[in-house]
Each structure stands twice: as C-alpha cells, then as structure tokens.
Amino acid sequence: MPYRINTGLKDSNPTLQICDASSGSVRVAWEYPRRDPHLSAEELELLQLRREEAIHDLFRRLFLLTTEQYLKGELDAAPAPALGAWRWRHAGRR
User: Residue 72 — φ and ψ, nearest 5°?
Assistant: First the structure.
C-alpha cells in the first residue's frame, strides 16, 4: 500500500500527514505544538513532556505502518544494510 506524505504550515507551525494513497485516509497526522508565552515554568515542563510523548507516539505509528507494509509484502525484500555501513561508505571505505 503506497502512502502519500503531505507537509505544510498551519499558521507558522509545521504539519505532517501520511495518507493511504489508494483510499486517501489519514494514517498519521502531526502538528508542531504551539507555545503560549503566558505559561508558568511548571506548565512549560509539562508541555515539554507532552511533546516528547507525542514524538515517541509519531515514531511508534510510523513503525507500525512500515511493519504493516512489510507484512503485506509491499516493501522491498532486500536486507537492511549492516549497522555502521553508512559510516563506512561515506568515509571512503567500501
């Protein structure tokens, strides 16, 4: 199942949507959180924790989408490069 990735700005905040290309249904939606200048230090700390949680949730959902594609046979079956292969390739040691 191919996906369409939409990015943009909502006011001045970046947004991301990952949609199923065939049905158009939104599979992952994310918007950068707005910052209120009137928040206390405690509220800012809680907001930071919520942001971290939202980022972890986004990556978890992206992982699940990729896993779904893999299990359906929609991804290339080539093995992933070995750990550190990128570093070796870009250091000139092929």
Answer: -85, 0
